What does this fold into?
Amino acid sequence: MNDLLANLLNMVRSQGWVAAVILLRVGAFASFLPAFGEQSVPTRIKLCVALSLTAIVMTAQPDLQIPASGYRGFLSLLASETAIGLVLGLGVRLFVMGLQTAGSMMAQATSLSQILGGAGVEPLPAIGHVLVIGALALAMIFGLHVHAVLYLLMSYDAMPLGQWPDAADIAQWGSGLVAQSFRMAFSLAAPFIIISLIYNLTLGVINRAMPQLMVAFVGAPVITFGGLALLFLLSQQILTVWADRFFAFLTNPF
It folds into this structure.
């Protein structure tokens, strides 16, 4: 009986050490994970998500080589694995930030930037808040948790356990994601910007032709209604394009 308890205790110690090391990367990643890592999600839920992802990654990576333990070894793993988890989380979070940027551009172009601006925890315009909530719901429907696990598993091949990633590679990878995020934001907001440009040019021509007409009071309702109509017509295409690029990144992130 004592031998059985001793073997069980040794197994728990070894597996617990592996789980703790995996949790360092997964926990930092889960804090930035869309939908699960939002500010409105309670901390207990985030902790449960991190522990669940840790258990799945630990089961899917049975041959994970853990460096020798010890005070210095643990501090090295704590720093490197946490940094890698933050990098992975920020890479995914950039797609949500790109959608937020697109929503802000749409709102500024259609004079809707201050309507219901405080609807969420983050100060977003109404259009940005609607698009982000819709995108997060769409990501959950398409199995974000499954893709997140695959993303984490692939990260152990690109960024091995216990090794600091190359700074040049991380900088190149991150700058490419930032550029892609802004390109996506501008492409999604392009119809609103074009309509706003045409609208302002038209108002300028009318104002030159009829200076006595208060074109601002006449045109303000038009651009507001036009922005809402464009959001109604193009929201499906916007969310579809965002979901395609988001899951394409999760499928081949490196």
About this structure: Residues 167-209 form the longest helix (43 residues). The two ends are 49 Å apart (CA to CA).
